[in-house]
Amino acid sequence: MEEIVNTDLGSYLRQMRERVRPEQMGLRTSNSRRVPGLRREEVAALAGVSQTYYTRLEQSQTAHASPQVLLSIARALDLSTDEQDYLLKIGTPVQNPQRQTPRDDQLNPSTRMLLSSLGNVAAAVLNYRCDILAWNSPYHRLFAPHLEFGLPEDADRRPNIIKMNFLDDNVRALYADWAAESESNVTYLRFIAGNHRHDPRLAELIGELTIQNEEFAELWCRQRVANCIEGTKLFDHPVVGELELMYQSADLQDGNILKFYHAEPDSPHEVALRLLTVDLDSVHRR
């Protein structure tokens, strides 16, 4: 029997329905509306399914639907590409959960070599739960100089970047726009949860964050979804000051993720990033 972790199709459909304004979908509005967003019968009509069937999905009386039906509902709810993908993941059964699990927490030699050769790029290798399996010196000095450099090597103590962002004041203070960063973290984590519904350790991570941080709990309940794999972030670093860095994520063959931050060439931000690679203690001793 399939084990479903951290997903609730009915709750997700309700959240998405309530955020859609009727006028977005070309529907007339009136003052008699007692619910935010679309009515269930309106979603059903737009999706071409019966109201009874849609209501059963939203009330979690039916756990799954065909991809065709889910795509029709996605169009009716005006979902983004990431939100549509998430709906398909939580709305269809996991065929073989065990086959989806990558070789957990293992780095091959070529990945370690790549990480050490990146030089003036802050880079780390994460598993899909966002546990940090390895980081280079610029990444360590950017995010966590207050932690031991070798900490990712310890499977029992290795840091998790989302936990650090929400529960470590030193890390949280780095972000110039915490509101955007916090939402990005949660929407990405929910995107991951859609891919790994069978993972009890991911469920444990989400549960811990929900209990320990009210802000995370509130954002998690909104059920927003986005695969945040590239963009720009502004940091306020205690050593080098303001840093505007571009970030990207790349999937590795071993199932892990390479996350790296880089600055625009010949910019003050590149100079600041380079300073993070300098052993300041060694300089002061001279």
Q: What labels describe this entry?
A:
286 residues; disordered C terminus; alpha+beta; disordered N terminus
Question: Could you please describe the fold and organization of this structure?
Answer:
This protein is of the alpha+beta class. About 45% of the residues lie in helices and about 10% in strands. The protein is built from 14 helices and five strands. It has a five-stranded antiparallel β-sheet. It starts with 8 loop residues before the first helix and ends with a helix.
Percentage of β-strand residues: 5-15%
Uncertain parts: 1-6, 280-286
Mean pLDDT: 86
Strand order of the largest sheet: 2-1-5-4-3
Strands, total number: 5
| Tally of separate helices | 14
Strand-pairing-aware structural class: alpha+beta
Q: H/E element string?
A: HHHHHHEEHHHHHHEEEHH
> What is the terminal-to-terminal distance?
65 Å
Q: Concise description?
A:
The protein has helices spanning 9-19, 40-47, 51-58, 67-76, 81-91, 109-116, 137-143, 161-167, 169-172, 178-195, 200-212, 214-221, 268-275, 280-285; strands at residues 122-126, 132-135, 230-237, 241-251, 257-262.
